[in-house]
Write a structure and sequence with these properties.
Length: 297
């Protein structure tokens, strides 16, 4: 089968804008739609066509439509809402969902799309805005192998690590695992920094001393120095990680699984958000330890 050429793109936020731009630069025919229409102009001036609605996008018969919106109800609306993709889709369409959403809902969406001969590939990403700009995202992919192989060249434009992890919903399940590991690691980092602070140990020296050993992690190397310097600007916002932890909680609860460390990390994030830090980066979890410990980093 020839390589696919035409892509529709829904959602031009922090992630969707640079990812769709990279597809355009790689030579794909890209048509975009964004709820706030003004966000389409930048892509339009780079050569993308602009649709009036998700349904209009689907009626233009692209081979693939990528979705990159916020949460589970948003994906449902874009797919099955009044002006949604599904009612207007042609048989054979592949929908690639890059949003981070609930794995069980994803399986339901896949079944409902399959009734219309449309295939859903769930492809949530990790690597943040910088990875989206550089095309170096990690992409956790769920869905039927033939559809995944068909979209792989396109995924390899936006990501450098594309891994097919299972059937529909398993990409989202993998992303939930990623968020569990990331938030628990970040909590360990923040607690180590709190202990250093309270014992009078220089934070940078402590990080230098331990990051090359068994305690080392991406969180420690990238976010540790920022916390020590009081830099809480987002890469990935606390409000969004709370959305992801909601997905983790729903998924774990459905399997009667208690995730004690994740719950504690979530508690810190909620304290930070309650103090007005929801739009700061996840490293602002450290601000919750300030509140709890009565000190300042
Ligand atoms: P964002 O900048 O807030 O953009 C969200 C996009 O979704 C916007 O284009 C928004 O449209 C659209 N949208 C939201 N609800 C919608 C609805 N009901 N109908 C139609 N469009 C809707 O978010 P982002 O950072 O790009 O994140 C997108 C997804 O990637 C999320 O699931 C997030 O968890 C995930 N993710 C983000 C990062 C990161 O570092 N930012 C990393 C990994 C994964 P408007 O322009 O009209 O608001």
């Amino acid at each position: 089968m020839p390589q696919l050429k035409s892509i529709g793109y829904v959602g031009l936020g922090i992630m969707g804008r640079p990812m769709s731009l990279n597809l355009l630069k790689a030579g794909y025919d890209v048509t975009v739609w964004n709820r706030t229409a003004a966000r389409c102009h930048a892509l339009g001036s780079e050569g993308a066509a602009i649709a009036d609605s998700p349904a209009d996008l689907a009626r233009r018969k692209p081979e693939v439509i990528c979705i990159n919106v916020t949460d589970t109800p948003d994906v449902e609306q874009v797919l099955f809402g009044e002006q949604g993709i599904a009612p207007a889709a042609s048989p054979g369409l592949i929908v690639v969902d890059h949003s981070t959403i609930n794995p069980v809902a994803t399986q339901d969406f896949a079944r409902r799309l399959a009734d219309r001969d449309v295939t859903l590939v769930d492809a949530p990403v990790s690597g943040g805005d910088v990875g989206a700009q550089k095309g170096t995202l990690s992409i956790m992919v769920g869905g039927p192998a033939d559809a995944v192989e068909r979209v792989r060249p396109m995924l390899e434009v936006v990501g450098s690590n594309v891994l097919h992890v299972g059937d529909a919903g398993m990409g989202q399940a993998c992303k939930a695992c990623n968020q569990v590991a990331v938030t628990c690691t970040l909590m360990g980092l923040c607690e180590a920094l709190a202990l250093a602070k309270q014992t009078g140990l220089d934070a940078h020296k402590m990080l230098d001393a331990i990051s090359g050993g068994a305690a080392g992690s991406w969180q420690m190397s990238n976010l540790g120095p920022r916390i020590a310097d009081g830099d809480f600007n987002p890469g990935f916002m606390i409000d969004l990680v709370l959305k992801d932890l909601n997905i983790v909680n729903e998924t774990a609860a459905a399997k009667r699984l208690a995730l004690a460390g994740t719950s504690e990390a979530e508690r810190y994030f909620r304290i930070a958000a309650a103090h007005g830090h929801g739009k700061l980066g996840t490293q602002a979890m450290a601000k919750a330890l300030e509140q709890v410990g009565g000190f300042e980093f």
